[in-house]
Amino acid sequence: MEEARVIALVRAGEADAFAEIIEHYQTSIIRYLYRMTGDYEMAKDLAQDTFIQAYKGILKTNAELSFKAWLYRIATNNALQHHRRKKLLSFIPFTTKEQYIPDTANQPNCPGERIAINEALLKVPKEQRTCLVLHFVEGFKYREIAETLGCSEDAVRKRVARGKKLFISAYNREGGGA
Amino acid sequence: MNCKDFEELLSAYADGELPRTQREFIEEHLSSCADCRETLAQFEAAGRRLSLLREAPKAPDIRRTTLSKIKTSNTLSDRSYKRWVRPVTAAAAIVAVIAILLVAQPWDIEFPEAMAASIVRNSPEVQAALNGEEIKEVEVTTKVVDDEGNVLMMLVRTEERAVAARVNLDTKQVTEIVRVEVPDFQLGDEQKAIDIARADPRVQELLAQGGVIGEVHLGRSIDIREIIGPDGTTSKEGTVIPTALLTIELDGKHWNIAVDPHEGKVLSIGRSQPSGAMIVVHISHFVTRFVAPVLLFLGILLVSGLSFGYRRAKTIAGVAALALGIIGLFMALYSLSSIWWRLVLSVGIPAVGLIIGIADLRQRGRRRWMPITGIVLGSLALLLVFLNEIMLNINDVPGDNIVAVIGMAVVIAGIIAYAFKEQIMSIRVSVRWLRPAIVAVVALVVLIIALVQPWSVSPQSVISKAYAATEGLVSYRATISGTGSEGDTLDSVIEFVFPDRFHARITSDGETNEFIIVGDEQYVKSGDMSRNMIIAFSKSATSMLSKEATLKLIDSLTDLQTLPDEKIEGVDSFHLKGRVDMEQAIEREKARLAEMQSRMDPDDYNRMMESVVTSFNINTEIELWIGKNDSLIRQMIQTTQFPDGEGQLQTSSTTLTFYDFNEPIIIESPLDSNGELLKGWQLAGSITPDSKQRVFGRNITSSIGAQEGYDDWAHQEVEYTITITNNSIETVKDVRVTISTMLTDEANKPATMEAQPETPADIIAPGESRTYHARCPFDASGYTKEDILELQEVTTILVHFTTKGGEELQELTELLFPDAPYPSKTPPAEPPAD
Question: Which one, of B283, B349, B288, lies nearest residue B322 by Cα?
């Protein structure tokens, strides 16, 4: 896919050209959002929102970011917003319990260990989790993470290290290592 | 350093994100620190575990659902389209609507004829002129659409009488009413007109070149002329001339031949102005009346639709593109008369149509035919404007056209580039050079525009347009007023009909002379003018004002400069100033004199030739006012500075104001129905007994000396060489030259001598010269030098001749300046006694 050409087409009003972008990124964005939220259906919806926002964004701005970094930033924001919404939900009676309980029904085809890993990951605060997922799942270099999140590489390194420590303790606590 | 502090580095080391120096540092530390090795292992394990999460359930395809969400999230799915098309089309539509409303004023449209007819019918002046009788018929005879307004000449008839009325459609007023007699057409007039036209040599020449006679239209033309009565009062007299108008098409050009079938003569021949002009005016009235409101409606729909995200906005855009394309096409046709705003509109409207059409087409709207048709029509309209620009200015400075064409090409390229900007910008390979290239091209265009300044009119292009417009003139009137160096004044009115008819009334220092020139015939109604003066006057008046002379003058202008625009009698005009290239002017003047030589007195001729050369010192400045719309010369002021005998600079200036361009002007020989000259008129050059015009020009030389074979004072003689030139247009016969002199043998006793012709003949044709010789002997012994001079001065020379009509006449030639009163060809032995 020639990203620039597609973006130009989208800017020129060819909405259908955007399908190419969705096709290219949908798998990784859904996966990213899934790992971030732990909810596969939610990840699908958030991915859809992410692409719609990206589409509008293309028309509105000429981002200096690389398209990929920018797309992940939107996805990250959506994931974080999802968490905020969930937090809001926690203030509403009878919903509190669901807050951090991943719905296994929404995690198809997941072998036991991966579930444990996922569970442990979700225990890591979102700031660090974002960095862990971007690096280990999405294969981002620290530099790319820094670009996506709009912070320094140093901060990324700190967050990754901190995240790993928290992940390890969470994983061990969950008994994943057992 | 505490190993705790190494955690971050170890984490990065495990992730392969450490620079080389730190990596080596860590590796060195790891080799000696078991704790850290443990931590690293934990980090690596965590990484491995987390990497397992790369495997995720196979994602469903969310393309379709996302796209449909995208499309339903906006009414106009397409934000980019909306983003620039909306303001552009809204602005364009508003501008187009306002412009068309301003130009067309659809609330105030009436067909010109109907409007003029109602003006005439409701005019109390017309009613009065018709004695209040019921108007039976109102007919338009002449239509002139120019800057002074739409002027129609109407013929208004009742049962009993008729008047001609000039109506100005802009002021909605009847400006002139004259009673007229109306001749009616007869059966067969059309054929008669064709026969008459075919008999004319000029028509024959057109036909010989391959011209084809087209349709014949019968109409009437009205000529209103001012008549100066014997008591000096002026009155107007109108003549209705039955006119058959023939068109001859030759090489794509139309020649209009006006024929009076009753009088059996050709009234005028001329290249027509754009023949479609009147049709276009009619179309324009139709369009403004019926199409403009529709367009207004469409424009409002377009603006509101696009501005408020109306669902059918794209359809409206298609309709708008189509409508603007059609209007643009019409405007392009209308721009044939090349008034600037028509040109602007005829470029602007199809251009807007093109933008909307292209933008709309790229939306893949359902009704593709509308934008496509709009684009086609818009392109056609623009093409027409270009061709029109090129064709109309065929005589123009070449650079002028190129600039116009380049300018328009840039506009169109800009429109297309804008419409396809994304595609252009997304050409990857070109991105590197595209931007600098665009910048360079834009800079170049700006530079060219700055240099050429197409908004300011170059005087050369105005002049060359004026030249072309003057070339197309068939008739005009002009007034001339001037002030000479000695305060003498000149006031003239002249009329000119292409190619060789002039009518001039010249008033100079209170004396009025009138000339009519029809072909080679010159008629004079003169006060007290000599033949030479008449010829000089009529020649200068006519040559100054003939089309050819004007063209030559335009051609010889140098040092042109543009002055602020001015209005001449209400006509917006360019104001230029230039100098006459003197060398050209001198050559031209010499050629003109040489042409007239045969009709001039040789003395006058030589004197004038000399004065032409001294006119090298003359500085002639020409100020021109040239109508902006028709490029016709409206006014010309010629200011001449020349040194007088004492070397003082004298100034004389002449103002010429031109009007009644291509109006039907009738110039006829001043003859009554029997072919007799009207009272006060004479055919210039004809000989009449009471004529004050000289028949003969003369050149006399004389010398005094001793008679052949003698050497004393008693045998002297005067020798005369007399050359006479027939300046009239008649051949004279029985020509004799006699010399009466007091200088004889006996004091105070006159004697008459017959001069002998060099060649024995007594007939002199017009323009011919003949030389005579005579010797008058006298006895000088009793005279003083002064006596001889005195007696010689009273010598008279008579030319006796018989006219064509058999009248015997004689013309006196006084020996005003004896060339050689004394001494003589052979010196006397001793001087005469004092």
Answer: B349
